[in-house]
Amino acid sequence: MRGRRKSPGPERPVSEANKSGSGSRGNDSRKPLISGNWKMNHNHFEAIQTIQKLAYALNRDDYLHVEVSVHPPFTDLRSVQTVLQADDIPVALGAQDCHHDDAGAFTGEVSAAMLAKLDVSYVIVGHSERRALFGETDETVNAKARAVLRHNMTPIVCVGETLEHRQAGGAREVVSAQLAGSLDGLDAAVVGALVVAYEPVWAIGTGETASPGDAQDMCAHVRSQVADRWGSEAAAGLRVQYGGSVKPSNAPDLMEQADIDGALVGGASLDAAEFARIVNHRLYGT
Ligand code: 13P
């Protein structure tokens, strides 16, 4: 028994999906994207097992409704790429970070050029852990996003406020500034095709999730900021993920929100069965 399965019904085109907020969907570029950020977890043996279990837990119908990406550590990428290709698994390969130069004397770094050679499709840039623990600024995030785009991959640009910002009533301003800096100088067409992940820092790894209403509010804010600066077409195309303690139990309510176009999942993506339940959240909603 997989839970409360909704009657299948005819599949509606994304443009007619139940999205009523500021981000009424204009095209199917807003197919929801559910991404598993494994962070520094799973060696390459564990990665292979996890991806095989995930493929087993998902079916073609799931991929019709949702795009799925996994973001293993760098050392696992080649192994996961091989499994995805050999078994023809329609899960996109993602990375967690990159360097903004293509090559050079940067000990320990991995370039976007190298990731592109591994058939990576999505690269997370500016995750709050990188901003807080490794000193990344909006300027470096912008340079990384440009490197990802230069190599024909899609950046998942992370933004989100800390608890202090939120308690002081400054969440919107913080997110606006991060967006403006991280996307600075990009063309409207480019912005309309990328992914922004709104991840409130206080909800990451804490078990505390933003309420669906608060998450929607901030994701709508992201979209309206993009509309103001890059125009309504870019805003309508941009996919905005929510991240922060997403789990099978809260995914249906979060994913139902008008301006939430997917999830960036940390801890719950490490277990294939749990992550699969998030991917097919539509089967479990009320
Ligand atoms: P958790 O899902 O573990 O809270 O992590 C969220 C996250 O940081 C994804 O990038």
Map the helices and strands.
Layout: E1 33-37, H1 44-57, H2 60-65, E2 67-71, H3 77-86, E3 92-95, H4 112-117, E4 122-125, H5 128-133, H6 138-150, E5 154-159, H7 163-167, H8 171-182, H9 188-191, E6 195-198, H10 212-230, H11 232-237, E7 239-243, H12 251-255, E8 262-265, H13 272-279
Parallel strand pairs: 1-2, 1-8, 2-3, 3-4, 4-5, 5-6, 6-7, 7-8
Helix pairs in contact: 1-3, 1-13, 6-8, 8-10
The protein binds 1,3-dihydroxyacetonephosphate.
1,3-dihydroxyacetonephosphate binds at residues 37, 127, 199, 204-205, 243-246, 264-268.
List keywords for this structure.
single chain, 286 residues, alpha/beta, TIM Barrel, 13 helices, globular, binds 1,3-dihydroxyacetonephosphate
What report would you give on this structure?
The protein is α/β, with parallel strands linked by helices. The protein has a single domain (17-59, 66-284), classed as Aldolase class I (TIM Barrel), CATH 3.20.20. 40% of the residues lie in helices and 13% in strands. It has helices spanning 44-57, 60-65, 77-86, 112-117, 128-133, 138-150, 163-167, 171-182, 188-191, 212-230, 232-237, 251-255, 272-279; strands spanning 33-37, 67-71, 92-95, 122-125, 154-159, 195-198, 239-243, 262-265. α1 (44-57) packs parallel to α3 (77-86), α6 (138-150) packs across α8 and α8 (171-182) packs across α10 (212-230). It is globular, with a radius of gyration of 18 Å. The model is unreliable at 1-27 (pLDDT under 50). The site of 1,3-dihydroxyacetonephosphate has 14 residues, from β8.
